[in-house]
């Protein structure tokens, strides 16, 4: 058994407590892959009308009796300690209820960090929160003020007298290399991995490229700011949060504040964007503590600046990619190594070398990531963490190699397409990247691309085309559960603590439940966004849809079994065993002999039951052990670059995806396009400006941190192979993060094709092109 398999089994054990022998490895295809009704249809978001009509209550909009408002004070120094703290003026200011600092903040432990062996954890930082006078990063929360109004709280915060003694801080990327750490593993992969002899292959090959690529820090800018509205009632705590980790957050708060699991309830039915940033950060914890001291419900909404100060983002990277090829374009060496920032108190290793391990067949490989310790807000997951920036380097390098060889860059990729997972030899569950490229190239008009850079122009504009591959690993998380309540009238209420950050979770699971239960969609109510419901893992790693689907499938199986038991001996189904029946069209039907059936209504009436409720946990994700599974994309891009200003305009983009079955073309299209737009930001505009002298982020506003706006975004086309993955629930793989993956390289490659200038430093701003 491979190391990967061991780690997956370990994490299954951690969550479920045990792993039965029969789970190792097996699994039959999901019957719903071939049998669909609501799944696959263009269903509009069920929560759309609530949002458009203003009835959807987001965390900062929940009304509470006696609510007060919180404001935070952040440290302007990076390392050091508080030497003077005078809260008297703030305490005496109008409307002030409480000033909380390390002096009166309750003594709390720290959060367990999210990891592959602790998937239920939500901690993005292991640093203490307002426990002492020490300052550990610039922006750290040093005080919280509660007042009757937000304005009073903000004003009183400005009256806090505080002095710091600054100490030397680690803020220089380059200087930190001297003490870089090289961890043993990157997520579930062995970190330093060498196959064959890449050094000598590189030296001897007919063609080689060997370059450094740099990507800057990026910050989270979900449209909805991080916010909580919360209240204590005796020893029970209710938290309305904006969260992609509902069940885990409730557990974490219970642990921190010494409560039982059922004494904490976290609700988050609507989330205005998450992208990896809506986990648990210091603001929820200080707000809970302040509400307890004050005995009042509290609302805390981070300012946009506040999000930059205490919520981490994408870490900067410096990556080396070296590729060698023989004269046919077969890869002889693939080397991907580098440095990124990951303080020891953070959770996200920015896994930029993972893609290269799974994408191309090569004669030799080397991968290793080194972590730099800087005194910064803990970095975290941000849409395709690792893959988004890793594919910029790897797929730029492939384009450079193709150019060096005079070969079409698609052809170079197809020549190195692996038959099985290139490192482990594990079979792919389903892989049609070649088809995604062929179909995408035909639709995009790739044949019109000029092979020689800088040869196509229109007045001051140079025009170019580029392509790049994206690859994102499939994941299904263990520990998802769901319940189904079926009524005699044929209505089903499906419940779990799922998160919908706008991507369509509730819509797609309602479609799924309809098909799984053999009911029309109108008969399904999908309840989610509440930790009091059966718990499901976080929405992360593009894994939520299949994780929940497996739980609902298990609950549906259990429901069928329970109905069969209730049907008893006078039913036409008498004598059949669970597993020999299925739910269809408001009836329970024999799989073997469909003429034997009985309606739900008849079964429940005879048993004198109004309804029946079951709860079940999804099967262990064995498919991950037995198969190599990845969502894939072929990205195409056309740019115009002004010779006068250096400005880059993306004029066309097309994403051709191979991600298994597409469950709802409408919501999936939005997911893909949203990812691609975020890719435009990564490539062209987004950059966290970090002042290495002060350790402070300089552009913590939407005015200075440039996310793509409408004028930056062209017409985007998406298409997909739609080939179901025979190994996953519903035949689906993740679609949340593949959209951004590979986009930055496609844009950089198009810029090269337009201008002949190779930019290896994101973002590609105009100064780099003049
Ligand atoms: Mo994602 S970065 O797993 O929300």
What does this structure look like?
This protein is an alpha+beta fold and 770 residues long. The protein has 3 domains: 3-57 and 476-620, Aldehyde Oxidoreductase, domain 4 (2-Layer Sandwich), CATH 3.30.365.10; 62-168 and 223-273 and 278-310, Alpha-Beta Complex (Aldehyde Oxidoreductase, domain 3); 179-218 and 314-475 and 625-768, Aldehyde Oxidoreductase, domain 4 (2-Layer Sandwich), CATH 3.30.365.10. It contains 19 helices and 31 strands. Strands 3-5-1-14-11-12-13 form a 7-stranded mixed sheet. Strands 9-17-16-15-10 form a 5-stranded mixed sheet, with helices on both faces. The chain has a 5-stranded mixed sheet with strand order 18-19-27-28-31, with helices on both faces. The longest helix is centred in the last third of the chain and has 24 residues, at 544-567. The protein is globular. 55% of the residues are buried. Bound molecules: dioxothiomolybdenum(VI) ion.
Set out the fold topology.
Blueprint: H1 3-16, H2 48-52, E1 68-74, E2 80-86, H3 88-91, E3 96-100, E4 134-135, E5 141-147, H4 150-158, E6 161-166, H5 173-176, E7 185-186, E8 189-190, E9 193-195, H6 198-204, E10 207-215, E11 227-233, E12 236-241, H7 246-256, E13 264-267, H8 282-294, E14 298-301, H9 304-310, E15 317-325, E16 331-341, H10 354-359, E17 365-372, H11 387-405, H12 409-415, H13 433-444, E18 457-458, E19 461-473, E20 481-487, E21 492-495, H14 505-517, E22 524-527, H15 544-567, E23 581-584, E24 587-590, E25 597-599, H16 600-606, E26 611-617, H17 623-626, E27 630-642, E28 648-658, H18 665-685, E29 690-691, E30 696-697, E31 715-720, H19 743-755
Helix pairs in contact: 11-19, 14-15, 15-16, 18-19
Bound molecules: dioxothiomolybdenum(VI) ion.
Dioxothiomolybdenum(VI) ion (MOS) binds at residues 244, 274-276, 381-383, 385, 540-541.
């Amino acid at each position: 058994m491979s190391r990967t398999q061991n780690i997956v089994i370990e994490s299954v054990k951690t969550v479920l407590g045990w792993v039965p022998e029969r789970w190792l490895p097996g699994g039959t295809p999901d019957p719903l892959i071939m049998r669909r009704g609501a799944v696959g249809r263009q269903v509009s978001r069920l929560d759309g009308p609530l949002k458009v009509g203003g009835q959807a209550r987001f965390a900062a909009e929940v009304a509470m009796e006696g609510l007060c408002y919180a404001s935070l004070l952040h440290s302007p120094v990076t390392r050091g300690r508080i030497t003077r703290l005078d809260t008297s003026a703030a305490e005496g200011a109008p409307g002030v209820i409480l000033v909380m600092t390390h002096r009166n903040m309750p003594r709390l432990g720290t959060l367990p960090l999210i990891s592959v062996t602790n998937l239920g954890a939500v901690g993005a930082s292991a640093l203490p929160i307002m426990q002492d006078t020490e300052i550990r990063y610039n922006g750290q929360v040093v005080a919280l003020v509660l007042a009757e109004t937000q304005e009073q709280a903000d004003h009183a915060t400005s009256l806090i007298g505080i002095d710091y003694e600054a100490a030397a801080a680690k803020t220089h990327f380059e200087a930190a290399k001297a003490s870089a750490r090289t961890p043993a593993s990157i997520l579930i992969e062995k970190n330093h991995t060498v196959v064959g002899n890449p050094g000598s292959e590189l030296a001897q090959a007919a063609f080689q490229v060997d370059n450094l690529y740099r990507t800057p820090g990026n910050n989270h800018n979900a449209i909805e700011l991080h916010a909580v509205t919360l209240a204590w009632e005796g020893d029970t705590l209710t938290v309305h949060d904006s969260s992609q980790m509902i069940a885990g957050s409730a557990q974490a708060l219970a642990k921190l504040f010494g409560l039982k699991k059922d004494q904490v309830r976290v609700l988050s039915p609507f989330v205005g964007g998450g992208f990896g940033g809506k986990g648990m950060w210091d603001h929820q914890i200080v707000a809970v503590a302040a509400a307890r001291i004050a005995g009042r419900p509290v609302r805390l909404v981070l300012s946009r600046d506040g999000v930059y100060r205490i919520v981490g983002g994408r870490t900067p990277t410096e990556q080396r990619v070296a590729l060698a090829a023989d004269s046919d374009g077969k890869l002889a060496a693939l080397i991907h190594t580098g440095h990124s920032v990951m303080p020891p108190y953070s959770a996200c290793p920015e896994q930029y070398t993972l893609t290269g391990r799974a994408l191309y067949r090569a004669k030799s490989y080397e991968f290793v990531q080194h972590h730099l310790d800087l005194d910064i807000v803990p970095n975290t997951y941000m849409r395709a963490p690792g893959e988004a920036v890793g594919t910029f380097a790897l797929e730029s390098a492939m384009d450079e190699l193709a150019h060096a060889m005079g070969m079409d860059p698609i052809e170079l990729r197809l020549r190195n397409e692996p038959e099985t997972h290139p490192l482990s030899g594990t079979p792919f569950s389903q892989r049609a990247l070649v088809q995604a490229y062929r179909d995408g190239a035909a639709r995009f008009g790739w044949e019109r691309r000029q092979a020689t850079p800088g040869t196509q122009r229109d007045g001051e504009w140079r025009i170019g085309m580029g392509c790049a591959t994206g690859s994102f690993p499939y994941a299904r998380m263990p520990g998802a559960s769901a319940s189904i309540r079926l009524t005699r009238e044929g209505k089903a209420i499906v419940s779990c603590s799922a998160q919908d950050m706008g991507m369509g979770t509730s819509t797609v699971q309602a479609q799924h439940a309809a098909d799984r239960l053999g009911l029309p969609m109108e008969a399904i109510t999908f309840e989610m966004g509440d930790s009091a419901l059966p718990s499901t893992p976080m929405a992360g790693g593009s894994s939520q849809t299949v994780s929940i689907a497996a739980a609902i499938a298990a609950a549906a199986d259990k429901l069928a079994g329970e109905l069969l038991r209730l049907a008893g001996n006078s039913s036409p189904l008498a004598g059949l065993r669970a597993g020999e029946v299925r739910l269809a069209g408001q009836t329970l039907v024999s799989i073997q002999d469909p003429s034997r059936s009985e309606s739900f209504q008849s079964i429940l009436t005879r048993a004198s039951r109004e309804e029946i409720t079951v709860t079940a946990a999804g099967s262990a994700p064995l498919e991950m052990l037995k198969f190599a599974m990845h969502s894939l994309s072929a990205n195409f891009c056309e740019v115009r670059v002004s010779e006068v200003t250096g400005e880059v305009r993306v004029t066309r983009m097309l994403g051709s995806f191979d991600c298994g079955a597409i469950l709802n073309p409408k919501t999936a299209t939005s997911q893909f396009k949203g990812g691609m737009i975020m890719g435009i930001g990564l490539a062209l505009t987004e950059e966290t400006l970090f002042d290495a002298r002060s350790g402070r982020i300089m552009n913590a506003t939407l005015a200075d941190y440039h996310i793509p706006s409408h004028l930056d975004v062209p017409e985007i086309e998406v298409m997909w192979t739609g080939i179901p993955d025979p190994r996953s629930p519903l035949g689906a793989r993740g679609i949340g993060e593949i959209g951004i993956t590979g986009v930055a390289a496609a844009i950089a490659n198009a810029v090269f094709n337009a201008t002949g200038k190779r930019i290896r430093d994101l973002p590609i701003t105009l100064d780099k092109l003049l």
